């Protein structure tokens, strides 16, 4: 077999494409979102868009009234060992690469290293809280600009309230906005929105930053323009490569994403440890870098590497639009891995949405052990509340029919699918406030990287949850208990995650911050910040 030949399902019949070697050196990373940002700087972006433009009803982030100059970002690639992430994040990354290699290592009959051994490696890598912050970082003061625009509220009294407990004050104000809208009290809603816009900031406290985007979601819902705004946001996004760079930063500074993938990879490595022919089906391949560590471990098997086939689905509804570049990138990357590590690899790219995938597209072959991966993708598939055909459960039943050795699921631990508007708003505010608060541990509030990550990777999701309904709302998160029920109804049984991997992840989280949490529940794990679970990871067979 020519190890540089990979099949691509492009527009119909599959064609064989040959890709040259992309690079000779590899940098291992467990995140899925890696790209090459443009070399040139972006022009300054004014958050308040011109109302006279065709996007007059689009996202008007004029509550903050801030202009952001976006610094030039260097090229990010898993093939580059000199990526220009912040120094502390790079230290964390390199340490985690060593840990992941140990966790994925093939069974050689030797004694498994203890957690303390791995943690000593982490300590040697200076994986400390100081390493996770910028040197000389200073806490930026909370924005104190709260001009009074609401009639009937005494300015001095309101300012005193802000000084006493600004975050609770902003949170209460946002809730009142949502309540007024839900009760169709439009005059009060518009008055409260103007006041709220004066209280939020893209560089303020977590709830102030979340509030910036929630307010625009509320306004879009009021104007029945949610879908149009989400489409406009898609058009306003930076280029594909630059957006992937922002996502890559997000997945390095939010360890619950990274460790969710690590837990899933650990389950796949365990389930396939004795297989000679392996077929991995990834329902959101993106840049495919989640698989680098696993493939390296498979290539190092004492009895020789297995034959590995990866089917990567480039689901555009999942919000990671690679605009035609992702599958080619994955093909080149796997071609390089095949040559460098002397492991037979095939890749089949499917540029289709998840529910459209059929068994025939996947080319299931006799004698292959199948592993299926759903990472932050399945919640985009409509369920029975949106489509009477229930594509979400239908997709799970189709996958069960493939008889996979293991199916992994990583999802947001949030309840926004069928929740009515007001509880959904409260849940969204709580969920993203926790996420934004955790980001403050690594990136300071004045950081342009943090602003861009939140704006381009998270804001659109919040607006979609708040402003859209029906098929236009694609962000439909469910809790682990509901996913458990869906998978059980489709015929799956729990495949417990590795307790050893879980224990190492839990201890590594502490090196980021003591506020990160890991809860083991019925063989799955819940990763979160303080008392708020943010990500669930589970495995099934």
Pick out its properties:
alpha/beta; ten-stranded mixed beta sheet; 13% strand
Give your account of this protein's structure.
There is one protein chain. The chain is an alpha/beta fold and about 550 residues long. The chain has a domain at about 50-65 and about 145-240 and about 420-470. About 40% of the residues lie in helices and about 15% in strands. The strands form two sheets. Strands 2-1-7-6-5-8-9-12-11-10 form a ten-stranded mixed beta sheet. Strand 8 (about 370-375), helix 13 (about 390-400) and strand 9 (about 405-410) form a beta-alpha-beta unit. Helix 6 packs antiparallel against helix 14 (about 420-440), helix 7 (about 225-235) packs antiparallel against helix 15 (about 450-465) and helix 14 (about 420-440) packs antiparallel against helix 15.
What is the element layout, followed by pairings?
Blueprint: E1 5-9, E2 14-18, E3 45-46, E4 67-68, H1 87-104, H2 115-124, H3 155-164, H4 166-182, H5 186-199, H6 206-222, H7 226-236, H8 240-253, H9 255-271, E5 277-282, H10 292-299, E6 307-313, H11 326-340, E7 345-350, H12 359-362, E8 369-375, H13 391-400, E9 406-412, H14 421-439, H15 448-467, H16 480-489, H17 499-512, E10 516-521, E11 524-529, E12 532-540
Helix pairs in contact: 1-10, 2-17, 3-4, 4-5, 4-6, 4-14, 5-6, 6-14, 6-15, 7-15, 8-15, 9-17, 14-15
């Amino acid at each position: 077999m020519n190890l540089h030949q990979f099949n691509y399902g492009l527009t119909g019949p599959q064609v064989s494409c040959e890709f040259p070697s992309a690079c000779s050196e590899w940098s291992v990373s467990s995140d899925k979102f890696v790209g090459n940002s443009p070399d040139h700087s972006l022009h300054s972006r004014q958050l308040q868009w011109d109302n006279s433009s065709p996007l007059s009803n689009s996202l008007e982030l004029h509550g903050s009234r801030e202009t952001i100059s976006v610094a030039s970002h260097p090229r990010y690639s898993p093939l580059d060992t000199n990526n220009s992430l912040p120094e502390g994040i790079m230290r964390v990354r390199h340490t985690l690469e060593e840990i992941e290699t140990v966790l994925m290592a093939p069974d050689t009959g030797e004694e498994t290293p203890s957690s303390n051994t791995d943690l000593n490696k982490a300590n040697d890598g200076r994986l400390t809280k100081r390493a996770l912050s910028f040197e000389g970082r200073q806490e930026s003061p909370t924005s104190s600009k709260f001009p009074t625009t609401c009639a009937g509220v005494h300015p001095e009294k309101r300012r005193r309230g802000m000084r006493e407990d600004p975050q609770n004050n902003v949170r209460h104000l946002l809730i009142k906005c949502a309540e007024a809208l839900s009760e169709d009290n439009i005059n009060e809603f518009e008055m409260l929105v103007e006041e709220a816009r004066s209280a939020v900031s893209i560089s303020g406290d977590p709830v102030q930053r979340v509030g910036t985007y929630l307010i625009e979601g509320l306004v879009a819902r009021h104007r029945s323009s949610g879908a149009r705004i989400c489409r406009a946001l898609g058009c306003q996004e930076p280029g594909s490569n630059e957006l992937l760079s922002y996502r890559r930063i997000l997945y390095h500074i939010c360890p619950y994403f990274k460790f969710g993938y690590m837990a899933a990879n650990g389950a796949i490595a365990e389930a396939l440890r004795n297989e000679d022919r392996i077929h991995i089906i990834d329902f959101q391949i993106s840049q495919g870098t989640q698989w680098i560590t696993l493939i390296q471990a498979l290539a190092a098997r004492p009895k020789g590497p297995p034959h590995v086939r990866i089917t990567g689905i480039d689901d555009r509804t999942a919000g990671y639009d690679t605009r035609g570049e992702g599958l080619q990138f994955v093909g080149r990357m796997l071609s390089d891995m095949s040559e460098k590590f002397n492991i037979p690899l095939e890749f089949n790219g499917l540029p289709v949405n998840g529910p459209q995938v059929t068994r025939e597209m996947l080319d299931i072959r006799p004698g292959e052990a199948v592993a299926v991966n759903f990472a932050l993708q399945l919640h985009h598939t409509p369920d029975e509340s949106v489509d009477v055909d229930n594509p979400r459960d239908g997709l799970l039943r189709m996958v069960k029919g493939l008889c996979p050795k293991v199916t992994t699921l990583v999802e947001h631990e949030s309840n926004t699918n069928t929740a009515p508007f007001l509880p959904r708003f409260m849940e969204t505010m709580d969920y993203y406030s926790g996420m934004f608060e955790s980001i403050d541990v690594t990136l300071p509030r004045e950081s342009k990287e943090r602003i861009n990550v939140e704006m381009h990777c998270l804001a659109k999701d919040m607006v979609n949850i708040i402003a859209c309904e029906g098929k236009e709302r694609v962000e439909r998160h469910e809790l682990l208990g509901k996913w458990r029920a869906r998978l059980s109804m489709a015929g799956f049984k729990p495949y417990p995650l590795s307790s050893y991997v879980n224990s190492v992840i839990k201890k590594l989280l502490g090196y980021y911050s003591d506020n990160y949490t890991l809860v083991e529940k019925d063989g799955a794990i819940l990763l979160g910040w303080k008392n708020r679970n943010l990500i669930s990871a589970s495995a099934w067979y």
